[in-house]
Amino acid sequence: MKLNKAIKLLVLGVSLSLAVAGCKTKHPDVTKLPDKAGMTGSTNRNPSESGKLDSGDLAKAESGPGGGPTAEFNPDDFNQDRAALAAQTVHFDFDSSVVKAGERPNVEAVAAALKSDNAAKLLIEGHCDERGTEEYNRSLGERRALAIRELLIKSGVDSSHVFTKSLGKDQPASSEHNETAWAKNRRGEFVLVLPKKITTTQNTQ
User: Fold this and answer.
1) Residue at 3 is within a domain
2) What are the backbone dihedrals phi and psi of residue 121, each rounded to the nearest 5 degrees, phi first?
3) How far apart are CA 69 and CA 72, in angstroms?
4) Is residue 26 part of a domain?
5) Per-residue DSSP letters for 120-134?
6) 110 and 190 Cβ atoms separated by less than 8 Å
7) How do the pLDDT tens digits run along the chain, 205 residues long?
8) Half-sphere exposure of 109 (CA within 13 A, CB side)
9) Distances (CA, A) of 202 to 10, 177, 197
10) Taking Cα atoms as reference points, which of 132, 116, 125 lies closest to residue 173?
């Protein structure tokens, strides 16, 4: 009798479990968004930065098609002045593309200069220190330049006048191999570009 009672209880328990399972709502599968590696124009990141959208990415996303920071830009068509805004160079923390509060006055000074001359255009060069792979530093340099570009646009600079270029670790400000040198090399430099004046010559007879 005890065995029959135990069997009945076991059958009852299994039935209740099946009933509860059948009443649960089955959620539809969630479609996963493509990761950065599968998107056109994406940049490689190291594992510690996976899934984060920093200011550089935001500037790139907001640029939209045509005329954005990656639009065709031929420096040979302009007169380049590296000295004019050299004092406003922006420096970054290690492995970061965030413009620090202490560096923002430099960006504001550049914005004021650009807004005072409608013909002026600007090339922002993103640089890194020597540590890390060439591919990763190229990506990081791009994000740094784009982060600066975003702040300039927020300050009222015409987005069509600002271009970016990443040089990665190819052109260090200091060739030494220590913390002081690396801090100098993690930077965004401003190159003021003005259209070349076209001169015409007349034939005299």
Assistant:
1) no
2) -125, 165
3) 9
4) no
5) -EEEEEEE--S-S-H
6) yes
7) 554 555 565 555 555 555 444 444 443 333 222 233 332 233 333 333 322 333 333 333 333 333 445 445 666 777 899 999 999 999 999 999 999 999 999 999 999 999 998 888 999 999 999 999 999 999 999 999 999 999 999 999 999 999 999 999 999 999 999 999 999 999 999 999 887 766 555 554 4
8) 13
9) 107, 56, 16
10) 125
* Structural domain boundaries, residue 178: 79-195
Residue with tokens 């209880």: 9
Residues in Cβ contact with 42 at an 8 Å cutoff, skipping those fewer than 6 apart:
36
In whole angstroms, what separates CA 94 from the centre of its chain? Answer: 15
Q: Report the CATH number that the domain containing residue 129 is assigned in CATH.
A: 3.30.1330.60
Structure tokens at 169: 């670790």
Residue 131: count other Cβ atoms within 10 Å of its Cβ.
14
Pairwise CA distance, residues 95 & 99, whole Å: 12
Q: Distance between the two ends of the chain, CA-based, in angstroms?
A: 130
| Other residues' Cβ atoms within 10 Å of the Cβ of residue 173 | 15
Alpha-carbon radius of gyration of the chain: 28
CB crowding 37-49: b at 16 or more within 10 Å, else e: eeeeeebebeeeb
Count how many domains the chain has.
1
- Token readout for 193 is 């570009």
